[in-house]
Amino acid sequence: MAQLTGHAADDGRQPDGGDTALTSLSGPGGAVASIASADEPELAARSPGALEEALGAVIAERAREFRLQLGLTVAHLAELTGLSKGMLSKIENAQASPSLATLARLSEALKVPVTAFFRGLNEEQDVLFVKAGRGLDIEHKNSGPGHRYQTLGTMRAPHNTLETLLVTLTERADTFPLYQHPGTELLYMITGRLEYLYGNSRYLLEPGDTMQFVGELPHGPNSLIELPIQFISVKSILPTGLPPQPPRASR
Q1: What is the pTM of this model?
Q2: Per-residue pLDDT reduced to its tens digit, 144-183
Q3: For the chain, where are the alpha helices, taking DSSP H only?
Q4: N or C: which end of the chain has fewer CB within 10 A?
């Protein structure tokens, strides 16, 4: 990757506050990805006693975790759920197995779905597999003909920390939008040659080149030098579906 220095980015373009506004979503041939759980054989092989013990330990850990995240004491949680402090203490120490009715009470008081109490059982591993050419087509704001963007899928929460795109450019354009977003981004050039603008600097991207940067600074394609162009964009994003973290107590 060669850097072209000495070029200011004063071209009058305004950065786009976000480059993920979708105006259409389609997938050729139906489903484009499969998610496989790698822990099912292990669960089936466990004895009932071992599974019950593992389940109790996971529920205990999650119950304590969710209570502390909300800054609740055991006594306060007891008031919210109608359960005794003794029962809550036993649940959090894996000394008692809560019924579904009890989990429903805890779920409402702790503001989490019932299934959240089972998170971590065997550390389920998701696999997102997308066959070549089967990504979902999306239209970016201000993009035009010959500019194809395909999402390569997003993991389920809480692992949805990456946004992956396959970008294919086959036609030139007079101007490109500039983007700004939280987090970081990585570009990997597959084919073609592209001049990429980042802040006040311009970079020449050729096949095999990579580029990483902080997303808050205006960035985007500046000149399509050799068509067709194809590259992969991977952005780090804030995962959704996670409860807010409480402030750390001062010592």
Answers
A1: 0.53
A2: 688 888 889 877 777 788 999 999 999 988 778 889 999 9
A3: 40-45, 48-69, 74-81, 85-92, 100-110
A4: C
